[in-house]
Amino acid sequence: VTVSTCVICSSGLCAVAHSQIRTYHYVETPMTWNEAWQYCRTTYTDLADVNNAGMQEILLDLAGNNTEAWIGLYRDQQNWQWSSGEEVTSYNWKSTYFCAQVNDEGTWEDTLCMNLNYFMCSTETSQGSRTYTLIKQSQTWATARDQCRQQHADLVTISSPSENQAVKATAQGSNFWIGLFNDPWEWDDGGNSSLRLWNSIEPNNLNRNQLCVAMEPAQWRDYYCSEMYTFFCCDGVSFPLVFQSTLMSWSQAQSHCRSLNKDLVTIYSQQENQQLQKLPGYVSGLSWIGMYHGKENWQWVSGKRASYANWKTQLSCATIGPDGYWTDVSCHELHPFMCYS
Questions:
Q1: Where is each C-type lectin domain found (predicted)?
Q2: Nearest in space to 48 (alpha carbons), one of 328, 319, 269
Q3: Which domains, ranges and CATH numbers included, belong to the chain?
């Protein structure tokens, strides 16, 4: 029987889901996501899934003003999914990244980058012309980009109406990913490198205030700019790199580099990223680089937009915070969690 109101239960709160009453339970014992999932499966039914605003409010009331708590959302190698097997129909991330697709009419639409789509790769010939290849495999935007790059190509960039018509004709009525996305990070030297080496759980902008980037050791995380780490300086003309082992905040590191007529390093390629770890005196650990979050975008200290990243790849799971927003974090972190029965 469908019930239009919540029912208060002795062990938690109840809610309606698919014409059944669900009871939600807040467990204060911190566990990893896998431990929480096993506990819920053994003691109740599963970790809580949140597919509408009503369920979200119930979980927030149940947890009160406590810390972040696990929910049943996790990401495998490609997609986010609920541990219960329910379809993921809505998201409430602290920051949502959108990517662009071209529809069958040739117009562009923004959609979640984790959605599945065909995609189009482009390569430039020795004569300077471009070739387009439609890949009829449904992939997330990031996976599509990586597959294109494995073939020494990239997701298609469209610079004119004639190019738009050309890729539309190649697609023959299919929707597909293009290389446009709303990455808000920039390099402080103004570089336009599109490389991204983020850890897969980054950038998560914890507490909405992690606005600077550090390497750990070859992939990137966003951190509070006041934290103290080693850093790299580079000369913008001849590009010699210097590793500084003195611990400084991001702002202190930037000032120090500039006092030497250098700047915090901007990274344009995977090769440059690897080169940093071979510098004399390099010590493995977190080190500041020249990427930071401005008013709207991530950028390099030179003022150029960031176009390269290298976030670390690992399994991610979702927490819900007191503000109701979700954060993707490492599944190995310890948090309270929500079960339902």
A1: 19-122, 127-234, 243-340
A2: 319
A3: 1-92+324-341 (3.10.100.10), 98-182 (no CATH), 185-312 (no CATH)
